[in-house]
Description:
This protein has helices spanning 12-22, 50-59, 75-84, 97-108, 121-129, 155-166, 190-201, 215-224, 236-246, 260-264, 317-330, 342-350, and strands at residues 2-4, 31-34, 41-42, 45-46, 63-68, 94-96, 114-118, 133-135, 144-147, 171-173, 179-180, 187-188, 207-208, 229-233, 249-253, 274-276, 288-290, 300-305, 308-313, 337-339.
Amino acid sequence: MSGHAGxxxxxxxxxxxxAGADGRLVDGYALVVFDLDGVIYLIDRPIPGAVEAVGRLRxxxxxxxxxxxxxxxxxxxxxxxxxxxGVPAEPTEVLTSAAATAELLRDRLPAGAPVLVVGAExxxxxxxxxxxxPVSTVDEEPAAVAQGYGPQVxxxxxxxxxxxxxxxxxxxATNTDRTLPSPRGPLPGNGSLVAVLRTALGRDPDVVVGKPxxxxxxxxxxxxxxxxxxxVGDRLDTDIEGACxxxxxxxxxxxxxxxxxxxxxxxxxxxxxxxxxxxxxLFDAAAVVAVPGRPGAGGxxxxxxxxxxxxxxxxxxLDALAALCAVAWSTAADPRVRAASPAAAEALAAxxxxxxxx
Length: 358
């Protein structure tokens, strides 16, 4: 079976793209909200170009904020980490899932209520800051269980949490990220630790606070007041889906977890407004593309042959990716890709799609 993808206009997506086509993407937004791991840094190392990009935004007087699912640091600690990397940041600009979880529990529990914590000291500190009492065992009769990422989390903490949930304590997870990025590759994230309890208990957490839930992004947008907000992230399943749920535009940067192959297979709820290799896309119209593109635009054509996407033509690799998204998202084609020309092969290699079986 073979055929061309439909010639449908992408409508609103193309309208949103004009800011990037006619000028700088960032000029269309009053606030830029950055994810941290995979966008600004990897664990504790800044991603190349990130310090310069944020510095440029600040020099222009633009509003920025940071929203992270990582619950192992407090907002003040994250701000200090960023400042130490050369990215001046205030604690009020940093929104963490640990702080959001603590605030939610504060609103639902009486003052001083015991909360069993699975995670890092940062989550305990956030709970203390809102007037709750972190505890470690089920014998202390916790009113809730709060689970966040912590590199030292072990069996004994998970066992106490399992017993507390079985005894009736509601189970709050700061986030369910399966992995977190690192210079050595993806490592187990809080979602992997949540999966241990999910397996033991046979059920999901009662509440998941962090992305893709929209609360962190919605809070940032409210703080910024009027004007449009752009979310910049590296994960489709958290950053981009969270932006979609919050009704905000988003930029996927390919410096962290999600890659082009995952993008082509993304369901509608996880599709970004724009894609860029890195943060240069905020300022350089040639370094960003709106997705999906218009089929046939940018010098590329995409056909569906034997259920696969076949790329032909020549042009910018980003335009090739946008064209592939247009076809992959509008057909039932398998997101496997192969090239029909040397230029197409080079474009696919730029996104690692040459490693996709085809």
